[in-house]
Write a structure and sequence with these properties.
about 325 residues; alpha/beta; Rossmann fold; 2 domains; 7-stranded parallel β-sheet; binds flavin-adenine dinucleotide
């Protein structure tokens, strides 16, 4: 049997919703499928018993042809050991051409184990996916510390890639298909896991989620200079109903927590408006925010690279500009 079709891992959140990154991947997979002559776009999901049909509409509306589901009470919590074994078995059986996984914490844990068990390549944290002239997955991601964008081809199957949330957009396109649900046997020992999850405590700063859904983000860089400068930025953000983010430069200066860092080693955001204040526009930063609909940059250096991607550029002293706005 030849490898065919695109398989997407449908991660569930702790509240048992399908993670938004799945819908982003599904949208991109539809584009890839068209270039592959209409290859099937399928999903795989792990749930507690009798839960999968709760997601029927979501899968159908995103044009998912088949959903392979594994159900067991043990799947209430993610475990690398069970999920990877079953996913590997499924892939060996159905032989997808492409396997896509969201680069969430869970996806970053799962994907390498699956790729190594399948002896195939994995392009992690991609910023672009396409099909090349030979019908192969062309996966693009930053490399050499973000100085270059590399497009990577995988010689083996399935061609695997992970993509961070918010890198691809979801449009309200009608992709309805009737989805076929396939119950997959859980034919591994579920008592042999090497650890038990006793308790789960959310310690992650809630600003992380806030940035995901923010319509306006005001981000500060090293140009904000010190804590007082960053406080000014926060006041401005509050006044316009925005959330605050930072460059790594600002995080390294101790002006902001790393949880709100945007960029290659931070978050990827896609607000309606992104206001970059005192940020030079290094590619490692911009890779995390070019999905914004409108980028406004304030920088005193007219040659700062941020102006190359900004829709609106303001050359001037950020302190003067923010203070002026706050007093009007
Ligand atoms: C592997 C790797 C991963 C990385 N990941 C990330 C990442 O995830 N996110 C990230 O942001 N960076 C990341 N970086 C770092 C990145 O390369 C840059 O060093 C960083 O983004 C620079 O931060 P900055 O723009 O705040 O500082 P700078 O580059 O120092 O820019 C400060 C800017 O402020 C302007 N300025 C100064 N004073 C004023 C003023 N009064 N008014 C207006 N403008 C002013 C200056 O003109 C300058 O353009 C990474 C680097 C590497 C090697």
């Amino acid at each position: 049997m030849e490898n065919s079709g695109i398989l997407i891992y449908a991660q569930l959140t702790r509240d048992e919703y399908i993670h938004t990154v799945f819908f982003e991947l599904a949208q991109k997979a539809k584009e890839l499928s068209a270039k592959l002559g209409g290859a099937e776009v399928n999903a795989v999901i792990f749930t507690r018993p009798n839960l999968v049909f709760k997601y029927k509409e979501a899968f159908e509306n995103r044009g998912i042809n088949k959903v392979y589901y594994f159900e067991n009470e043990a799947f209430k919590n993610y475990t690398n050991e069970y999920y990877s074994k079953l996913l590997v078995n499924l892939v060996k059986q159905i032989k997808p051409e492409i396997l896509l996984i969201g680069a969430t914490n869970q996806g970053r844990d799962l994907a390498p184990r699956v790729s190594s068990a399948l002896n195939t390549g994995l392009t992690a944290d991609c910023t672009g996916l396409d099909i090349n002239e030979n019908g192969k997955l062309a996966a693009t991601r930053p490399t050499f510390g973000g100085q270059l964008m590399a497009t990577i081809l995988c010689k083996t199957y399935p061609q695997m890639a992970t993509v961070r949330p918010k890198v691809f957009k979801v449009t309200p396109d009608d992709m309805y298909v009737q989805t076929e649900f396939i119950n997959c046997p859980v034919n591994i020992d579920l008592t042999g896991d090497r650890y038990n999850l006793l308790n789960f405590e959310k310690t992650i700063d809630s600003t992380i989620d806030e940035l995901d859904s923010a319509q306006i983000i005001v981000a500060g860089g090293k140009g904000m200079k010190n804590k007082d400068g960053f406080e000014l930025l926060k006041k401005f953000a509050d006044k316009i109903g925005a959330k605050t983010a930072a460059s790594r430069g600002a995080v390294e200066m101790g002006l902001a927590p790393s949880s709100i860092q945007v960029g290659q080693t931070g978050k990827t955001v896609a607000p309606k408006i992104y206001i970059a204040c005192g940020i030079s526009g290094a590619i490692q930063h911009t890779v995390g925010m070019t999905g914004a609909e409108h980028i406004i940059a304030i920088n005193k250096d007219e040659n700062a690279p941020i102006f190359e991607i900004a829709d609106t550029g303001i050359v001037g002293d950020v302190f003067e500009i923010l203070k002026e706005y706050l007093t009007t």
